[in-house]
Amino acid sequence: MSSDTSSIIGVTENPPDVNGLPSNFLSIMDITKDRSSTRGRKTGGKTIYTCTACGDKRYDHKANAANHVRNNHPVASRSTRSVSGTQRSISAHFRPVASEDALRNAFNPQAYQEALISILTRRRVPFSAIEWDEFKQLALACNPYIKDSLITSQRTMVRYIAANYDFYSSEIKDSLTTASSPIHISTDLWTSPHRHSLLAVCAQWVDKDYKLRKALLSLPECAESHSGEAQAQAVIDTLEKYGIQSKLGWHTGDNATSNDTCLESIQRKLMSSHKIKFNAKGRRIRCIAHIINLSLQAFLLASSKEALVAALESASGVTGEELLSQFSEVLASHRKKAAAERNTAKRKNGEPARKHKRKGSTASNTSVISADDFSGVENVPALRKLHGLAVWLSSSSLHQNAWDKAVGLRSGMDNRTRWSSWYQVIDRAIRKKDKIQSFMSDHEEAIGDNRLLVGDWELLGKVHTFLQPFASATLYAEGDDSSISQSLMLMDMLLLHYEEQQKIYQSDEHSDERMVRAIDMGWFILSKYYRLTDEVPVYAAALLLDPRKRIAYIKQNWPKEWHEDTIASATAFWQKKFNYEQPSDHPSTPTSMPPPLAKKPNQLAILSKKLEVRTINASVRDDFTSFINVDATDIPPDCTPLEWWCQPQQRKQYPKLSRMAICILSIPAESSEPERTFSGARRTCSWDRLRITCKTIEMIECTGNWLRQGLIQPLHENGMGLIGIPRPEGDSQDVDDDSGHYFDWY
């Protein structure tokens, strides 16, 4: 057959090598690093080539491995069958397979490194994932020619993360030092699963572009002490690291007295070391969510105001979840002690220690109760039964499976340290009331005394209606756009809710002494913390600077005797801190020569001068007073008061007042950011990673937080990207991640 009418599909010999290697080299040879040799420690270990087809053939040199592939595993030769011109023209239309060089050039190492760092920090995948075979196979499935470009060392990845942590720490420092607002912080102490105490220091500020920013600045270990002094030193170290000692704003934390001690210590340290004045008492913001939850715990558990005072004193020395737990435990112990004393007294008087319900009754006797018998709403039969039902379900997978099949929604269980937990449990029960009643009828004997009766459902409905505003207020305060301007309004609404509900349950139609007493307990706690806001002028100032409220809110909703002191306090804060001219950044204009003497003015000019309208000098105008006395105005629903003040037109119209508004309205209402940090760190310190060091946890959590908050923007998001050069080997710490067994640490 002539050469011009025939085509050769295959060749009888192997195809030519690519880059000195057989074309099937990477598919035959498994390339690994031998780290057992101390000689290769700094280079990642000796490269070993293992033939996957033979299994036992290993080579130390690439050339020997390549010869093995050529001699023992040649590419299968194709037949020399001739084809027609028609077939040749069809095959010409197929796109040629890309060469190895083209595929290697298509690999983007920067994007690959950014993805790995994000997976290990933002998603908290363990470092050992880098060495998983499946991890390598996933990358090679996308591009089979990048095996020698993959990162397969845990230590290398730690160095990459450390380099990015160092670099972006300095970038965030620049953002903090050029901020348009003070740097507000929120802190909380947490004990990790591997029994280390970590202090989360979170910041919130308005940057130079007038955008609200949040960041986890540090997560240091408090190894020696949990005192306020120790926490203050960790905060000072963080402030000095970022150079923001002079820009420190307000501190948001829970109600533990250690936070008061911490701020007092910060006040002393800033003055002694940096000559910076800091008013600890005036900069103390109490987390609104903690206040709401303490009030709810009082409503559910408290038996008397004396018990509440004792619980507050007992819980004042702890923080976070421990504070809520301690507060609840003291209330519960007072309740049990009071009940035992009442039973003892009744037995001495010949009375029955407990009045049992009549057999067959369909209602819980909750309407008539003496003041001495009151022991908190959580102790009523309906809630005890709901709790007992949750315990019964969790005691056996068979019980839970039957419930899931019949009801279709997990009931959950109340938890004193989880906000609004009772509301969530009751809400689910009411939503599935019909199915739950049917389930209880089918399993009446197994459920026993935990079966909910008609009166129990009535009480659950009352408690559900009462708790709903508290759950909504907590969620509202947790939002990203919440600020201190909502704190007083939320407490006003909840106090009003307490008072309205108390009137309902005091009426003859809905009389319920237990609810009245419980409401009194919750109101006592909420009003206590409401009064403490008088010590911090920014609470009232934030409310007055909200364009939707201004002074009209105070006049409409507050007692008249409060108006004068509240407005005077906010006005004094404005006059002292903000009603002054800022020094200009521009050089002063040189003084020109005095103008020549003007001619003597004529009589008409003198008369005109006498009739001129006298205008108010802008420098002496009181913007604060004029703003708060204007009628309240609506702003777009998707615009917060802070965003409204950050708009150019507001900053131009109120140059000094806008600085005050941006300063105050950027203060967080609650310490939710440390709580979010701890929720994520629990996954970082999982049970199989208990050897991870506290410094590594800090790097992971900070880098991941900066990625989530947009302070680090990868290249594919048109950002600066992550650093592709790892920290030098000598500067990196040892890797103590999940490479060791749990019991090695324990």
Automatic annotation (TrEMBL):
Pfam families with a match to the protein in the record: Dimer_Tnp_hAT
Zinc among keywords: yes
Keyword Flavoprotein applies: no
Location within or outside the cell: Nucleus
Signal peptide: none
Listed GO MF terms: protein dimerization activity; zinc ion binding
Chief localisation class: nucleus
Region (Disordered): 337-366
GO cellular component, one term: nucleus
Ranges annotated as biased composition (Basic and acidic residues): 338-353
Keywords: Metal-binding, Nucleus, Zinc, Zinc-finger
HAT C-terminal dimerisation domain sequence ranges: 637-707
Full protein name: HAT C-terminal dimerisation domain-containing protein
Species: Fusarium oxysporum f. sp. cepae
